[in-house]
Each structure stands twice: as C-alpha cells, then as structure tokens.
Design brief:
- The chain is an all-alpha fold.
- Helices cover 83% and strands 0% of the residues.
- It contains 19 helices and no strands.
- α1 packs across α7, α7 crosses α8 and α7 packs parallel to α14.
Amino acid sequence: MWGLIGQLAIKALSFLFTVFVVRHLGPEIYGQYAGVLAFGGIFVNFADLGLAVYLVRQTAQLRAQAESQAAINQLFADVAVLRFLLSLLTAFTIVLMAWLTGKEGIFILAVALGTLGLIMYSVQGTAEATLSGFERLDLVAGQKIIYQIVFVALGSAALYFGLGYYGLIYANLFGIAVITWLCWRGVRRLNLRWAMPQWRQWLPLLRASLPFAIVGFALGLSYRFDSVLLSYRSDYELGLYSSAYNLVFNAALLSNSFNTALYPSLSRQAVTDRASLPRLYEHAMRYLLMLALPIAAGTWALADQVTVLLFDEQYAAGAGALSILIWVVPLMYLSEFLGYVVLIDGKERFVARSVVISSVLNVAANSLLIPTFGFMAAAVMTVVTEAVLVTQYLWLLRDLLKQMNWIHIFVRPLLATAIMAAIVLLLHANGAPFWVSVGAGAATYAGLILALGVLGKDELRFMRNLRSNNAVAPQ
C-alpha cells in the first residue's frame, strides 16, 4: 500500500513540476531541454542492457534458497561492475554521436553533463534493483520521493535565478547523487558484502538479460526517436510537441499504479487458481478502459483550453498535437496490462518481438514523415505505434480473450464516453467555461457508468482488495 502511495506521490509531484518548467522556459528553450533528454534517452539502455530487471528476479529467487548469501553477494558485485563499465562506454558514445551528428557546442556540453548522471545511475540502479529483489519497495519508493523533492527544490531555485535548463541538469545530478547514496546505504543494511567480480560470468549475465535489454531499448527508441528528429528540425516544434507528450505520459500514472499493484496478485493466481484468471483479466481491463476512455475523450474535446490553462498562450499552437496524442492513453493502458498478461503466460520472447516490430515501424515512419510534416506527424505515429503493439498482444492472447464479455469490457464504457464527449463538445462550442464543461462531463459519465452497470458494489470491493494484494474477481 505504501509503495502505491509513494508512486502516486512521485508522479503527481513530477507532473506539477513539469508544468512549471514548461511554462517558465517557453516552447523554444523547453524544446532544447527536451532534445537533450531525448538524445541521451535513445542510448541510455545500453548502460544497463536489461541487467537491472534480471538482477531483481535473480535476487528474489536466490533469497528463497538456503545458503544463498554468497551467491547474492557475487551477483551484486558482477552486475555493479559490469553496469559501471557499460555506463562509461555509453557516456562516451552519447557525446560522440552528438558531435558526429552536427549538434551545437552548448547541446553537446549539456548531453555530456547528463552522462555524469548515467554513470551514477549504474551504481544507484544496481543498488535499487537489489533492494527490489529483497522486496524492500518501501525503501525504493521513499528514496524516489526524496530524489523528486531534491530535484524540484533545486530545479525551482535554478529557474528562479535564471540558470535555464542547465540549472535543471545540475539539479538532476545532485538529486541522483543523493538517491545513489541512499540506495547504497539501503543495500549495506541488507548485510551484503562486496565479492571479487568474476569477469568470466559477465557474458552469461549479458545473455540472460538480453530479452529485457531488447524490450528496454526498443521502447526507449520508440518513445524518444520522434523527439530526436524534431530537435534537428525545430526547437520550437519540439517544445510544443513535448509539452503535449508529457501530459499524455503523466495521464498513464493511474494505469501504471494499478498494474503495479495487481501484477503480484495475478502472478500468484496463475499458480494457485489459473482457471479464475480470465475473469480477473476481464474486470481489470474494464476498469482500465473505464478510466482511460473519458480522459482521452475529455482532453480531446477541450484540448485548446487544457493547453492554455496548463502552459499559457505561448503553447496554444500545440493543442492540435495534444488532441491527437491523447488517444494513446487508452492504448497505453491496454498495452501495459496485456504485456503483463503475456508475461504471466510465460511468453517473454513474444513481448520482445512485439515491441521490436512496433518500434521499427515507429522509426521508419517518423524518419519519412517528420522532416516534411513535423510534430503533427510525430503525434499521429505515436498513436499508430501503440495501436500496433496492442493489436499484437490481442492476437497473442486471442484464445484467452474469446472467453471474455466485450460488451462489459468495451462497449458500455465506450457508450458512456461518447455521450459524455457529446455534452462536453456542446458546452465548449457554446462558450462554457472550462470547469463547467469538466464538471458536467464528469457528472454525466459517473451517472452513466452506474446506470449501465459498468461499475457496481462488487467492483468497488474488488478495487479495495487490491490494497492488500488479494484480488478476488467479482461474482
């Protein structure tokens, strides 16, 4: 429960600070900052190669065995040293690529500063993965909250004193240093002892982590490649696009928190009572779509007002991108959940294949379209890419999904959303204030999901059970 609250707190604080940064910097400067983050983000997974995810799983499994402390110590040491060396190589590659692709000196320096954080993350990420393997999610969540507080406080001060996005980079580096120290202290409290790294084990480690590396790199490329291309076209366009893009990904916080809370229960249910999984999946997807569809439809209908309300008139030209991008929200809700279902079914390699196919499509289409059509093409391709990923998961799970009642899962929430959207559009067209449209839409939707039987007492009980990781399907 505290882990879930911690995640929500982190994301809420991050969202509010992002809005402040976007408003303060303006489209062009914010576009430069977004370009720096996106460029480094393309290569960041090379510094990990899936080792963090692998370390979590292996540590958890080793803990269940007798006399496992020495093996955990050895694994921790090997991953820590290997990740540190990978981060040095990745940092060099990032700076070299920025120079080779003709970026300006101020951009290259900003990217170089960012790579210092990447090197620190090699230590922090290894320690955090070990804490997760020991199921100390309370420590992990608490440390992330501390990082966010430090970053927000120092970042706000940097902007106040006119340091621009370089000030944000320095604030981020200090926050990473703090969380690295905290994570290392947490690991020491687990009584881990440093073992002599065994370099002969590094190649087997990399082979074992390869599926996670492929998924991580493909997702990173898919989510950031459009921003990198836009950074070569126009900082102003990238600023408009990134402001809308950040809103979309912040809207995914409910899905991420829901799935994080539900995944352990579903994994346990797959062993103890596998026959009940289709019913659990059905209800979970209904709740996700019940949340995602009105968010998408409401934001689409009021995109111009949302953009100006959050980011001021200087970002008004980005409303069109937001009205397109927001439709990725229900797709992201589904893709994340269905990806978990595929993993529970023991088909990790199919997740990797699906993500790679979607990412290749994204890179190819954006390379062709962005130079001519700019950030609007990027917005369209973001939605198309996520739709392709969801389609692949639906095909992989087609036999399972045939057992479900799609009128309850999709048709009724969609009907309630359509009626709500029509009312909001009508009010907006007649000049109603933003909060009047939002209030009327929310009241209409709430009444409809109750009237149509989308949500009832049994569903509310199911949601409450998530707090104790004891999900039981409604009858």
